[in-house]
Amino acid sequence: MIDKYCILIDERDQSRNLRSIKRTLKVDHGINFNYVQINPSENKFQSMDEGSDVPRVDMRKIEDEIKTVPFFMRANTIAIDYNLVEDVLNGFQVGIVVRKLGYKINKEIIIYSAGIEKAIESIIQTGKLEEMQDKIHQLVKGKFNFIKREGYENEIIKHIRQEPAYNFDIVITEWLHRFSERQIIAIFPAYKDYTLGQIAQEIEANTLSSQEFRKHFIEFAFSILVDDETA
After folding, report:
1. Strands 83-85 and 89-90, sheet pairing
2. What highest taxon heads this organism's lineage (predicted)?
3. For residue 41, how many other CB atoms are within 10 A of its CB?
4. What is the value of pTM for the model shown?
5. What CA–CA distance (Å, rounded) separates 26 from 2?
6. pLDDT tens figures, 12-48
7. What domains, with CATH codes, occur in the chain?
8. What is d(CA 176, CA 104) in angstroms, rounded to the nearest whole number?
9. Which three-class secondary structure state does DSSP give residue 23?
10. DSSP sequence for 115-149
């Protein structure tokens, strides 16, 4: 059975829907659906404002919670409710944070809302041209998939089932993320200060450093596969 991973961020308990998704994927598609829900409205994500007794949503605590999900960097699907904490926090803001934390750009982030059209309008209608341009840039670059809340479960099932064509970068980065805190072994001296997770992020960003790593990795692999006499 194939393992797939999902993070759902919603201010309402979605346990029933998540269990239904898990059951459908297991019975109909042979997929073991692993999931975590984060609820930003919970008290543990609040801090007291300095000089007042009014609690506020602490985005740093939400970031920390996302980062502690064991499969965050290799999650197949991240889905976020747009209407998280009224007038304080929305799903697009959290989606931007998810990208900044390094979630792979080749994966869509699902944002759902009962009034998805109004949600998109509220994102870009900031009043200032520069801010509007910045938001549009984030919308395009962030690879967000905006959908209606009704039936979002089916969209997650569809998203989870999508099996991309074999991609070497995706496979190797998934393994690197599994052991993200470990340091790379000494046979790659140019990367001696890198963790495996940092190398994965370099590959996902397709940096010059990652291109060098690919080259050295393939050379190392062939040095194992081919004996010295035939190399």
Report:
1. antiparallel
2. Bacteria
3. 15
4. 0.72
5. 9
6. 999 999 999 999 999 999 999 999 999 999 999 988 7
7. 2-162 (3.40.50.2300), 168-224 (no CATH)
8. 13
9. helix
10. THHHHHHHHH--SSHHHHHHHHHHHHHTTEEEEES
